[in-house]
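Key idea: predict the complex, not the pieces.
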Amino acid sequence: MAARVLACAPCHGAEGEGTSDAYFPRLAGKPAGYLYNQLIAFRDGRRKYPPMNYLLEFQTDDYLKKIAEYFASLRPAFPPPVPPVDSKEILARGESIVKNGDAQHGIPPCSACHGQTLGGMEPGIPGLLGLRAAYISGQLGGWRYGTRTAFAPDCMQIVAGLLTEDDVKAVAAYLSSRPAPADPSFAPRGSLPMPLECGSEPH
Amino acid sequence: MSRISTGLLAGLMLVLSPIATSAQQPADPAVIAKGEYLARAGDCIACHTAREGKTFAGGLPMKTPFGTLYTSNITPDPQTGIGTWTSDQFYQMMHSGRFPDGGLVYPAMPFASYTKVTREDSDAIYAYLRTVTPVKQLNKPHDLTFPFNNRSLILGWRTLFFREGEFKPDPTKSAEWNRGNYLVEGLGHCGMCHTPINALGGSKQSQAFEGGLIPMQNWYAPSLTSNKETGLGDWTIEEIVDYLRKGVSAKGAVYGPMAEVVYNSLQYLNDDDVRAMAVYLKGLAQGGPPEKASTSLPSAESSLLLSLGKSIYDRDCASCHGATGQGMPPDYPPLAGNQSIQMVSSVNPVRMVLNGGYPPGTSGNPTPHGMPPFAQKLSDDEVAAVVTYIRTAWGNRGEPVSARQANELRAATLN
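Result:
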């Protein structure tokens, strides 16, 4: 498989570990269902990024599943966390949203669906560590503005819509400052009581 | 209208109605299956299905130099599709490029090729299309710039470029050759891309299948003639068959818009038909001498490019394409002697280096190898250098490429 997916390596690293470019995400060790949903969304043009749309346009569901399973199975080392450049207050705000949410604004904690360890849950919920702040805020922004969508009900669109610009910055700053988990793994399917319905994570 | 003539008309309608509704009867399953196969050969689905849209419900935007056309709903929905069309009307559209009301069809619909389709085959496609799930979806109005939004201009286009008429077999050739000719020039509508397009959007028949730049997409459709340098002269029938059905072959892999054709259409055709197409293509003669390349770069710049190009090639390309460009076919195409690298237009090799790409996933090659994009790794100078190198090394006879050409193609539409 490594030879077949060499096309992914310049942006995502030879083992899906990510590269120095902050905007291209780590793929390795994310749940296969999540990666598969993204590959399908790029192939069909629902998630828009022309270089990805172009590469995947004429691939079958079966092959995209194999690619997703391949990257999900890899465990390359995480990059060292980026030393935070943001203030303690911003990081604390981020940590608070990630762990506790913001009841006043109806924001659930990230950990409710992405797990206490933020490693994600099978089959469709990705881990949140090992990503750079620019990528995380880019994706949350994409959901807020509707340029990134997922299967209905699109829970991330709802959650991101509740976040302010400052919240996004704080969450991205906090997540990207966290050290990688010693044992990167995702929670088993159905093990987390999710606070809202997600089309990508069928019950 | 008098009562009597109304009555007469009603009587006539009654007499005629069994004929008029005969088209509504379910057709023979064998005819429907044949129609489905022929619809694959015509690649109807590629244009008449939008991204994530319902099959055959249209709505796909087609960008042209004259504006954007939206493809039509060809499901059997009576209000928004072609549910009320008769097989006569369907044939008239395929054969003459006219709607049931006589209106002119924009030639983005390849009726200039489909006119060669026999009545029997048109009826089979019609029978098949009546069996697909009807979708209620109104056609989107076209968004064409003045003066192209005036449909009567199509009359002029038709006078210049449209030759109506069913395919006539050539009795001096084999049945296989004739079948290939019928598929390539009719349903396959290969000439839509592989014949040069002029400024009026018409195909230059004097240069049929000699290749041309596809408007808006910025990919170059190579010559399909038997010319040794630019066409299919050196390809065996087996290699052409592999290329068309699997998307990869010992001589090269499909990429760009051709990947779509293999993915949606050619991989579904049976071996006899693809072989017939290969036999016909192999026999296409070049109409005139191939276009002569003009060297636009001073030789000092070329030689600098070449030495830089070789070092980039050895570092980034040789591990797959081989130290001497021999490749490891079918997964890693050879570059030495590869027509699509050295043809006059350098658009394709530049774009492959910038954008990378996957051949289509087909039943014959379900998990293809992908070429990485180098757009973010290589500068314009480096892209020009490495493409110049592969176009001129190992006996390849292409012309150098400038950094400016590489830069311009960074903005090419990807998808």
